[in-house]
Amino acid sequence: MTLFNKISNLVASGLMFFFGISKLVGVEKSVQGFEEFRTLLPLNPTVFRIVTGTVELIIALLILAYAIRNINNLGKLAYFLLLSFMIDSLIMEFFARPKPEVPLVIIALVLFGFSIYKLKLLLKK
User: How much is the pTM?
Assistant: First the structure.
């Protein structure tokens, strides 16, 4: 595994841990963000935030496990889930939030790019 691949695994996992934990502990910015979704989605924002944070932690753990164990199928699962989650995140930013948060869009696009790159590598093996 190249240095770029190792670093990108740690960055992706770290970002997902950071955002997952912030949702689960109820960081004010996260709570406010999910409250914004309330007007367009008929979901309880607290439950939605906790489920989202849990999914983010699961993805972070899968990427970290792949980074440590280098199991091809584990990497495929981890990066497929990350790609799916980033697509969902971008949809939420553009269609469910009154005004998209530019930093969140940039982070989602970076993770989207990592996912595509990793999946292409993993599918070649």
Answer: 0.93
